[in-house]
Amino acid sequence: LCLSALVVLRSARADRIMGVIQTWVPTWFPMLGPLVSRMQVIVVCSELRLQLEAGIPIVTVVRSLSQSVPHPVIRRDLIEAHRALREGAPVPEALEQVSMIPPMGRTLLAVGDSCGQLPEMLGLLVRETTLDLMEGVRRMTLILRNLVVRGIGVMVGFLGVGAFVLLRQQF
What would the pLDDT profile of 56-103 be if each residue is shown by its tens digit? Predict the structure, then answer.
């Protein structure tokens, strides 16, 4: 019971943090889309790992995630993965339905399933995706900083030209 409450609280906290971005930003959207995809992978894989380590069967885990993830594309993918698992598909094959998981992640899932260390491989995938996300945020921050500096430069230029024109009109 306590473990179930922890899973629900953790899911609720992740949903609050992700909020509107998680639900409404399309994954193809420039700059933000790839970051949202990475955040989705982190949330889904963290939840999978947590529940698998608690001994909950993978079919139940994927079903509960498909009902709690707010992003429509991920929800649809998880429903398809749940359907494949119910029909007896191997775990890596079923999780290939989740389009946000990168190719490296699919390889890790296949290795983890064959070795019986799926939770550990999910943890590794979360760590690698987190590093990837941090690098993407760093790049986006640099781009935005450069845009802001150039925008301020243009505004200062317009103010300077405007001041020069006003001074010239007075004399």
Answer: 998 999 999 888 887 788 889 899 999 999 999 888 888 888 888 888
- Residue 159 — left, alpha, or beta (φ > 0 → left; ψ -120 to 50 → alpha)? alpha
User: pTM to 2 decimals?
Assistant: 0.70
First to last CA, the chain: 83
User: 34-46 in b/e burial notation, b at 16+ Cβ within 10 A?
Assistant: bbbbbbbbbbbbb
> Where on the phi/psi map is residue 55: left (φ > 0), alpha (ψ -120 to 50), or beta?
left
Question: What pLDDT sits at residue 69?
Answer: 82
Structure confidence at residue 71 (pLDDT): 78
Please check whether residue 45 is in contact with residue 129, taking contact to mean a CB–CB distance below 8 angstroms.
yes
For 99-104, the CB contacts below 8 A with 24+ separation are: 99/73, 100/27, 100/37, 100/40, 100/41, 100/44, 100/73, 100/74, 101/41, 101/44, 101/45, 101/125, 102/41, 102/129, 104/128
Q: Which residues lie closer than 8 Å to 85 by C-beta, 6 or more apart?
A: 58, 59, 62, 91, 94
Query: Nearest Cα to 38, choosing from 102, 107, 123?
Result: 102
